[in-house]
Amino acid sequence: MAERNIPFFNYPALFKTYENEFVDVFKEVCSRGAYILQRDCEDFEKNIAEFTGAKHAIAVANGTDGLMIMFRAAGILPGDEVIMPAHTYVATAAAAHLTGGKPVLVECGPDHMMDPEAVEKAITPKTKFIMPVQINGRTCDMDRIMDIAKKHNLTVMEDSAQALGAKYKGKSAGTFGLAGMFSLYPAKLLGCFGDGGIVVTNDDEMARKMKLWRDHGRDENGDVVGWGLNSRLDNVQAAILNFKLKHYRDEIEHRRKLAGLYHSKLNDLKELTLPPGPDANSDHYDVYQNYELEAEKRDELKQFLSDNGVGTIIQWAGKAVHQLQGLGFEGVSLPITEKMTSRFLMLPMHAALSMEDAEFVTSKIREFYGH
Ligand SMILES: *Cc1c(COP(=O)(O)O)cnc(C)c1O
Fold it and tell me: I need a labelling partner for 268 at 20 to 30 A (CA). Which of 139, 219, 274, 279 fits?
């Protein structure tokens, strides 16, 4: 019999933790009849702009739409190449592809983040964009990436879906290039009760265009001035998120504590390659959307943990984007990323996870490797 039941992610806790408050928010917003693009949505946009230090934030229906809106507003043209890491969600590549661009996938460095050297090597005369992915709530070497972009006259836009609150040298993820996106999917750092996303920019013209794209090409007066999508964040979700944002910094601190515990209890195991601990490098303030490590005998470890009541996940089924079928990446070979994806495993990491449960997870991992 399992001694414990520690799910990888606790979906019911998302609601239960503040159930009464959420019900009150729902009643209040719906009683006002405030469903689409109302003041709660505007407040949420202001809150995220303030939280990230971005000049503008525009709430959208989901993160993937957010990326597509960024590409559209930035004027992507058919065939424009977009350099991005292969170790990302299919949505990053899909957004480039579906707006007419060509995703060009590159390797990660030993830190598991997009490798700036690989980016520079992948540049061709058709390259227009670099899209770093701030994966697992961590940040890429943004100094190097911004330098490369400047040198080659390329536009940087961030897939910071997993990194709301993460910082590189004190600057928020999502705010380095022309625009950045945060996903509000339930299991993301700041999750709502369905799909949601928000894009940020410091550029007034980019903000204006992204606003048009998310609402049928309509301007402030309701006049259609171009093509657009219907990609608005529900107002009630925005109201829920405004409430959740009050506890967000505490939740991030809790995740960082969990990561610190994982690090201190597992760092001596040579069978594992851990992500950096929370205080490893003062250039990076990581928010631990996920705790993704590399493990020897990964599949056996996963099974052993499962037998002991511990849920783990292999992100995106253990496949980098070029390893997915039917997307046209058949010729692409990225051996460093492929080796990593065959060893990646994610430990439980969320706001409702107790330190005690996290410690239990580490004790079982030590037991598995015979330590
Ligand atoms: C979640 C995620 C997305 C897509 O966001 P959705 O809100 O699910 O559409 C894109 N990129 C990355 C890296 C993600 O983790």
Answer: 139
